[in-house]
Write a structure and sequence with these properties.
Length: about 120
């Protein structure tokens, strides 16, 4: 187990796998713009020929998850350097709980009173 931990630290410090904070932020911005454009577009495509757009949207989402792994490292380094205050702790908790609750609500339909949800 110790060997694995040492190996993981070596990978984290390697310059070949590291991205700068600016590169991570720009990548997240571009991926979010891509997702926000392909999401409604894939919603508007109503035929099976537009399947490729769904796959592009899915690939962008997976890429966003991978880049967010780098962002977690950057945020953790910032918290270590500046310390955790009440405001940063609350925003971190809200940033985790709100999307989690929205995903659970969206997947289960609990409490949905909007007309498209009435068909469930």
């Amino acid at each position: 187990m110790l060997w694995l931990r040492v190996r993981f630290r070596a990978l984290r410090r390697s310059k070949t796998t590291a991205m700068t904070a600016r590169a991570v932020n720009v990548t997240i911005l571009l991926l979010l713009a891509f997702e926000l454009s392909t999401g409604p577009a894939s919603f508007l495509v109503g035929n099976p020929g537009g399947r490729w757009l769904f796959w592009l949207h899915r690939a962008g989402g997976l890429a966003l998850v991978v880049v967010l792994a780098w962002k977690v490292g950057i945020a953790a380094r910032s918290y270590r350097r500046r310390g955790v205050t009440t405001g940063t702790a609350l925003s971190a908790v809200a940033g985790i709980l709100f999307p989690l609750a929205a995903g659970i609500r969206s997947s289960t339909g609990v409490g949905c009173r909007w007309p498209p949800c009435w068909s469930r």
